[in-house]
Amino acid sequence: MIECSHNPPLLHDYTQLLNHSRVNVKRLMNHEPGLEECELPLVDLYGLWSENEEERVSCASEICKASSEWGFFQIINHGISLELLKRMRKEQVKLFKAPFDQKTAPGLLDNSYRWGNRTATCPKQLSWCEAFHVPLSKICDDTCYGEFNSLREVMQEYAGAMQELAKSLARVLVANMGAPPGVWEDKCTASTCFMRLNRYPPCPVSPDVFGLVPHTDSDFLTILHQDEHVGGLQLMKDSKWVAVKPNPDALVVNIGDLFQAWSNDVYKSVEHKVMVNQEVERHSIAYFLCPSYESFIGCCEEDKSVYRRFTFGEYRTQIQQDVKAFGHKVGLPRFRVSS
After folding, report:
1. Within a 13 Å sphere around the CA of 287, how many CA atoms are in the beta-carbon half?
2. Cα–Cα dist 218/69, whole Å
3. Which pLDDT score, from 0 to 100, does residue 4 have?
4. Rounded distance between C-alpha atoms, residue 70 and residue 238, angstroms
5. Where are the beta strands (DSSP E) in the chain?
6. Which SUPFAM superfamilies does its entry note (predicted)?
7. Which of 254, 289, 323, 332 is in Cβ range 3.0-4.6 Å of 166 for a Cys bridge?
8. What is the model's pTM?
9. pLDDT for 173-227, tens place per residue?
10. CB 296 within 8 Å of CB 311
11. Which parts of the chain sit beneath pLDDT 70?
């Protein structure tokens, strides 16, 4: 990475961790040469909005099947305009090109700027990225944008569109389990969800460095607008890592831990990661559908549940404790009845 004023001190942090650990980097990163590239299941959401019941049922079935078999799928004809996606990406790039000192300035996007991993103790725990992880409740706060006035309007429009799309997908998944929509609808509002703007700078160290360390998402579901041309997203499929081929026309959806617990393991929250590129940067935007911290996550069939009931706040606290103690998230296994 060329040292310049807008890059975070990732190279410094990586070097410090490498010197401290004195271990082989490729072994740490579980490098797999010749990784298989896959195309995720592609769902055309045109059928979901169709007046034809057979088309609606067929589309819903595709969503649920992909959520059970892959935990990931792509969507086209999702209702979010290409023009809005382009405007949001343009503003995102402009934000990350700002000087590092400006991005870390107090108050910008609710003080949500972060980079790397401040709790990392070895290279395998470092994420070679920078990000703004913004609560939707702050997106309408004009004081959050500082000098980035043009970001405010497009970010509000983008968040609103993603919220509606996420809820439409969630309704399908809930209905498939035979649960009434009211059980879920009140849990996730614009005040409880998040957006994460990501930038993965070029990494001069090695193409085997994590842009984002292996993890599962801790929400109900995530909608990702990833880079249309620069790959890097990988997921665990049939006990091996596969690389996701970018599709410039699609958004990527993945199931989070909460839907896996709520569905009693019918829907799968799949481990995934991002790998860096040595030559070019990569951008993505993730929308996280989350409930309030007080919301209980109980199985839709509680008498058969493999998980005990827990609140989202309890889950988040346990994750933070595990990361601090072990350097990584443990997640749902902590809440299985058998444990």
Report:
1. 28
2. 19
3. 63
4. 9
5. 37-38, 42-44, 72-76, 113-115, 130-135, 194-200, 210-215, 221-226, 233-237, 240-244, 251-255, 272-275, 282-289, 296-297, 310-311
6. Clavaminate synthase-like (SSF51197)
7. 289
8. 0.93
9. 999 998 876 666 677 887 899 999 999 999 998 878 999 999 999 999 999 999 8
10. yes
11. 1-4, 22-34, 181-185, 302, 339
Burial class (CB in 10 A: 0-12, 13-18, 19+), 113: buried
Tokens of 290: 């989350």
Rounded to whole angstroms, the Cα distance separating 212 from 126 reads 8
The amino acid at 339: S
- Domains, the chain: 10-311 (2.60.120.330)
Predicted pLDDT of residue 298? 85
- Alpha carbon dihedral 88, 206, 71, 262, in 10-degree steps, equals -90
pLDDT in tens, 20-31: 775 555 544 455
**Gyration radius from the chain CA atoms:** 20
Q: Which residues contact 228 (CB under 8 A, 6 or more apart)?
A: 246, 247, 248
Token code pair at residue 81: 């305009």
Contact 279, 268 (CB under 8 A): no
Write the DSSP symbol of residue 279. Answer: S
pLDDT value, residue 108: 95
DSSP state for residue 147 in the 8-state scheme:
T
Q: Which of 227, 233, 211, 232 is nearest to 8 (CA)?
A: 211
